[in-house]
Amino acid sequence: MTINLIPMMLTAFWRAIATLVLALAVLVPAYAQDSVDWPTGIDLRGAVPAETGTTTAPQPASPTNTTVIPRTPGATNAEGQSESQIKLIALLTADGQPIDKGITWRIYEDAPNTSSEPHLIRTLKTPNPTVKLKPGRYIVNAAFGRAHLTRQITVQQGTTAIEQFVLNAGGLRVKVLVDGRQPAPNNATYRIYSDERDQFANRTKIISGAKPNRIIRLNAGIYHIVSTYGDANATVEADVTVEAGKLTEATITHSAAMVTFKLVARPGGEALPETQWTLQSPEGKVIKQSVGALPTHILAPGTYTIIAKSGTRAFKRDFTLSGGDVAQVEVLMR
Length: 334
Fold this sequence. Notes:
The protein is mainly β. Helices cover 9% and strands 47% of the residues.
């Protein structure tokens, strides 16, 4: 009996193929559920290894017409880019020339509220300085001698500006004469007051101890001058007007006398030391007090009473002075 094996072999082969196909049909869906569907064209060589537990997220591709520039922290607001240049100019008058010497600038940061004092940030003595300031509000004072102007400026970001300060200032020179002659430099001084008065009728003192023949810079306006010759009551008062851009000259004439006091036991005798002196007007107003054997004072012409006190005893004498006198007044101990 002859058996044909070929059909049997073919049947077994096709059965094996069918079994293999059935196995693949079962395995492929399970594999697909555990796999990651990555977009095509992504390079995974830079991904973090699986054992670290992290995964690098894919980056979206940039459009072909876009250039990406990396950002550098702080580069867009470099130091100094926001500052502005402000040129400060001071003039005596609106149509005058800039002041080229003797000007002082003070720049303050404006206080954020009215209860705070402005903070001085810069002092300059350059005639027409250019300063760099950050945006904000500032208070600027321009001082030219006793003349000055203070006002607020606002600085914008990244600009160049000119700020003009018109001081409306002039000069005042006071000349002092005593009985037609110029006195010794240290014997004459004067004070300058404003023309306005407060509710108590007092003037504001602007300067004291000024010396004659010197130019004092002041804002234009009316001023009251009190000139004193000597150390007592030889005073003269006058009002002057200072004009902007001009030098005003004023002459003040004094009439005065020089007197020396002496307490003696007899006429022409030696002066007693450590004597206390009180000079009074006829109405009893105290004009001057001093201590010594031979005090000397410059007084306005007039009648006076001098009281000399030595120990517990006091002595008194009345006397009169005329302009230009140089006198010695003896007080007798009797």
